[in-house]
Amino acid sequence: MLGTFRNVDRLKEEPKTEPIDGIMMTLDAEKYLERTLDAMYAEVPIKQLFVIDGGSKDKTLDILKNYPRVNLEVLPNVTLGKCWEILINRVSTPWFVFIDCGKIPAEGWYNEMIKYKDKYDYYGSKRIVHYEFEREDPTTTDMDKRPLGGPWIIRKKSVEHYHVDDDYAWRIIDVILRDVVEKNGYTYGAVSTTSHICYMTEGERYLSDDKKKGSALIFKIPELKVYNKKNMDKRMEITAKAIVKYVDPVMSSYFCTDHTFMMISRLDSKWIESTNKKWLDALHHWKRRKYIKAKIPRMLYAWYKLITNKIDEKVERIVEKYDV
After folding, report:
1. Cα–Cα dist 316/314, whole Å
2. Quick one: CA dihedral 216, 59, 90, 43, positive or negative?
């Protein structure tokens, strides 16, 4: 029934446990898919698992078909943001779990997470990043940082009326969703008393779609290697447009980094103004801060040169006076 990692279906093992729906998106995910699903089915009493696949050409679809209660649809040309909207609308339980491939919950993860249902409405857990070593990711429990990927426990009502057009929302979906949750008056949070393992794999991404692939993870330090700069630049432009269109810079001040503003600054200012003027104002304030930050050292250097030149002139006069 299940994959090769563990053969446990918690909903069947504990039929009196309250079931919860799961949602998942996949694309060429075979490397960690069985491990992810086996761990999730063992931890979470999954009622139905709704999956949208982006057109995988590896064994992803075959693996998914081995698992119980999976509702699978292949939508290769739909943005991740729109996939979230489609999947949320299919959920039938008051809460649901987002399953992110390559993110393995620790033993007891679900039992620990549900203790926080009265405190949070949309929340994840501490991340331990798995390369060839494990390192805790402190950003996942810092509310002033970007929430990053799942798995998350989510109250359906907290993401009601979530909507994006099928255009730019391929990445930063976590930021858009946190925006929605907090605008709906619900709470976003993170649990530090349990964790999940985040598996990072070496290799080029999105091999099934030439329009999407543009980079690869190479384990040296590790570093991100750009294989197709044109594709990569296009993806960055699309991400910048998604930020402007769907993210509120006031609500998401933790996301307003220099990197974010650098991406947005490359967009047409008229488009930004017509789409979300808040970002044009935020961009103006950012440029002003950057200008002031750069101007202060220049002013100090100018004063330094003025003073040293005066000293040099005085020294030269003294030397001339006593020159034999």
Report:
1. 5
2. negative
Q: What are residue 135's DSSP bridge partners?
A: 129
* Structure-token pair, residue 275: 């789409």
* 324 residues of the chain, pLDDT tens digit each: 466 666 799 999 999 999 999 999 999 999 899 999 999 999 999 999 999 999 999 999 999 999 999 999 999 999 999 999 999 999 999 999 999 998 999 999 999 999 999 999 999 999 988 876 667 888 888 888 886 678 999 999 999 999 999 999 988 899 999 999 999 999 999 998 998 888 777 667 677 877 777 777 776 666 778 888 889 889 899 999 999 999 999 988 888 888 999 999 999 999 999 999 999 999 999 888 876 655 566 666 667 667 777 776 676 666 666 664
CB contact at 8 A, 122 and 97: no
Contacts of 156 (CB under 8 A, 6+ apart): 88, 91, 93, 94, 95, 96
Q: Under 8 Å CB-to-CB from 125, ≥6 apart: which residues? A: 105, 109, 113, 140, 151, 190, 191, 192, 194, 195, 196
Task: For residue 219, give the nearest of 200, 197, 196 by alpha carbon.
Answer: 200
